[in-house]
Amino acid sequence: MSRKPHGFLDWLVLVMFLWNGGSGLLRAIGAWQQRALLPQIGLPGWLPWYLLAAGSLTALLSLGAFISLYARRKQAILLAWVALIVTVSGYWLERLLLWAPEQRGGNALFMAVYHALCLAALSGYTYCERKKRGTDGSGD
């Protein structure tokens, strides 16, 4: 069995996790670089460390899901769902609980559509993979 992705949906899901992982990595790097500035402008001292941890977790889970899906490992779909649920729920919880009310309206529609498309893409991928495994009986 080839390890390369076969179709559009395979590539879409891989790019999605690469994008999410890159976003988390950039967020962690930005938090690290701005860790001294944020408390100076009146934000809580724990905020840079939270942003660093959240970005790192998103990056690790998303890039782990990317590698696992690309290599077609047995638990790849489970890891992909965990990564996506943590990323999406973390984003919306942070937006609702930590963002100032005047900041919450900025890109809400874009992010809602993006997250809905991510969930739809992974749902479609999961369905196709389960269908393949059910028809050929190999489980790989």
Radius of gyration: 17 Å
- How much strand? under 5%
Uncertain spans: none
Order of helices and strands: HHHHH
The mean pLDDT is: 88
Helix percentage: over 70%
The biggest beta sheet is recorded as:
none
Number of strands: 0
Number of helices: 5
Given the helix and strand composition, which structural class is it? mainly alpha
Number of domains: 1
Q: What sort of overall outline do the alpha carbons produce when their principal axes are compared?
A: elongated
Distance between the termini: 8 Å
Labels describing this entry:
140 residues, mainly alpha, 75% helix, elongated
Task: Write a structural description.
- The protein has 140 residues and is mainly alpha-helical.
- It has 5 helices and no strands.
